[in-house]
Amino acid sequence: MTDLNSLKYTAEHEWIALDGDVATVGITDYAADKLGDVVFVELPAVDSGVSGGDVCGEIESTKSVGELYAPLDGDVVAVNDAVVDDPSLVNSDPFGAGWLIKLKVDAAAVAELLDRDAYVALTGGDA
């Protein structure tokens, strides 16, 4: 199990795990639960650049279509093809096998994101 307190979060319900200057990004279990059963995931191309706050992908569920926002400026160094092939991983293991993209980022920028307590407060304690 991932240590949820070691992650950073965004107000758009993404989690970020930093390893050096590579940030692994996914959506939180709270977001996955609100979306319902995920049936389609579209991710940005490897070697493309993304800008923090901009839409960089799409997550469709049986309930709605959601947008994936880049949590930070960075370059896409990997995408999770397993999630594209089996979108249900976003629901079944959002903090593990359901990760979405890896970005090369300025590690200092990650510190500005929400910690676990702030994210739980944002969701009204439901996260």
From TrEMBL:
Function noted in UniProt: The glycine cleavage system catalyzes the degradation of glycine. The H protein shuttles the methylamine group of glycine from the P protein to the T protein.
Protein name, UniProt field: Glycine cleavage system H protein
Keywords: Lipoyl
UniProt source species: Microbacterium insulae
Cofactor list: (R)-lipoate
N6-lipoyllysine PTM positions: K63
Gene3D superfamilies per UniProt: 2.40.50.100
A UniProt-annotated Pfam family: GCV_H
Cofactor note text: Binds 1 lipoyl cofactor covalently.
InterPro entries: 2-oxoA_DH_lipoyl-BS, Biotin_lipoyl, GCV_H, GCV_H/Fam206, GCV_H_sub, Single_hybrid_motif
Subunit details: The glycine cleavage system is composed of four proteins: P, T, L and H.
Similarity-based family: Belongs to the GcvH family.
Domain Lipoyl-binding: 22-104
Highest taxon, organism lineage: Bacteria
